[in-house]
Every structure is written in C-alpha cells, then in structure tokens.
Known about the structure:
alpha/beta, TIM Barrel, eight-stranded parallel β-barrel, 12 helices, globular, binds 1,3-dihydroxyacetonephosphate
Amino acid sequence: MRTPLIAGNWKMYKTSSEAIVLAKAIVKTLSTPDGTQVVICPPFTALAAVGQVVVGSRISLGAQDLHWAKEGAYTGEVSAEMLRDIGCRYVIIGHSERRQYFGETDEGVNKKCRAALASDLTPIVCVGETLAEREAGRAYGIVETQLKGALSGLLPEQVQRLALAYEPVWAIGTGRTATPSQADEMHAHIRKTVAMLVDAEIARSVRILYGGSVKSDNAKELLERSEIDGALVGGASLQADSFAAIAAAAKR
Length: 252
Ligand code: 13P
C-alpha cells in the first residue's frame, strides 16, 4: 500500500510574507490528518519562514532544488544540509523547467539525488517528455533514459526512499492535462522500468506522482487510477482551497 503524496510546487511565486499567508491558510484548511502526506515547496527565500508556519502541522516542507556538493565555492547554490537545517524533508529534483532553462542533466539529477538521500531528504525526481517527443512516439524511451540516469548506481533501499513524478512537459502550466489513461500507462511503464533497473519489490512500493495541470476538478479522476500515487501541483497549489481539494481527492 503506497501512501498518497500531494506536493505543491510554488515555483518562483510568493515573497516571504505572501508565502506565510498562503502556508497559514493551507495549514488551516488541511488540519485533519486523513492518511495523505502533504508537502509544500516554496522558493528558497521563503523556506525558513514557511517552515515555522508548518511546524507541528501535517504539512511537510520541501525545496525546489539543491546543489549536490556538501559545501563550497558555488555562488548562488544551496546544499542538502542547509535545507535540512531549516526544516526541509523533501526536495524536488530534475524539474523540466530546470532541465529546459538551466541545463539540468540526468547526471546532475543523479548527483542531486545522492546528496539529498545522504542528508535524509526525500527527493521527488521529475521525468517527462516534451510534446515533440510524444508526437514522435518517443515518450516512453525518453522517460526510461531519464530514469536510468537519475537512478544510476543508487541502492534499492535508496530508491525506495524517493518519490518519482511524471510530468509531461506539454501538460505543465498549459491547462492541457494528460488523460488519466495516458498518465496511468506511463506510470505503469515507469514502474516496470524501476523493476528492471532496481528491483521488482521496490518498484511496487515506490510512489509515482503525476504533475501537469492538476486542478481540483480533474484531480479525482487522475488520483483514483491505481498507478497514480499522488500529484505534483504547480498553479493550483498557490491557493489553499484548490490545493486542499486536490489533497482531499487523494484520500484512499
Ligand atoms: P502546473 O500544475 O501549473 O501545470 O505545474 C505543474 C508542475 O510543473 C509542478 O511541478
């Protein structure tokens, strides 16, 4: 049985004071535990403040990226230990926006996963194809390559501790969601790939989230699919009500 996980990726939205207001509203709206794990991932500048708001609540704190080195001369970067220190439990790694705009590679994703795991952060590792790749019939192969790169050399027990997120690039911020069957089929393929690369048992237990235009009105039909264990939510996580409705739809 995989515990559903709903993560809000706030991207580059919300100043620290705005983030506090939103986090307070989310904590209030999602005050009753219902078996679903909920994470919010504000920008770096708001992490410490939001960490104070969610402490003692059912909401966990996550970051949107990290650097793989422990420390060093890496101007502008943030390490796993720094994130742990301010209360982060999760970190998004390999988001398509980082791949697309900031040159994130599968090798970098792998290094970041190792660093996160070594600091006891749960990586949420993103994979997903572009529209051109899907139309060319290459979606499954692309996702497989990304998984191979991300999980390369990780021990089965490390893979068990992370979560995967399938985010088709063409569905992010476009209002165009993958259909529940498209998502379910890709998730099954991801699970099969993990079984092949790592271990069948681990593949059964690893959580695979769907991301890409998840909203309160389509969350249920996606989340009731057997292969979809949660959601990585962008736009709809910026409002407490819609985010809470998505979290409620994940209840098993
Ligand atoms: P949207 O929900 O805004 O499409 O964003 C999805 C996403 O990229 C989450 O990481």
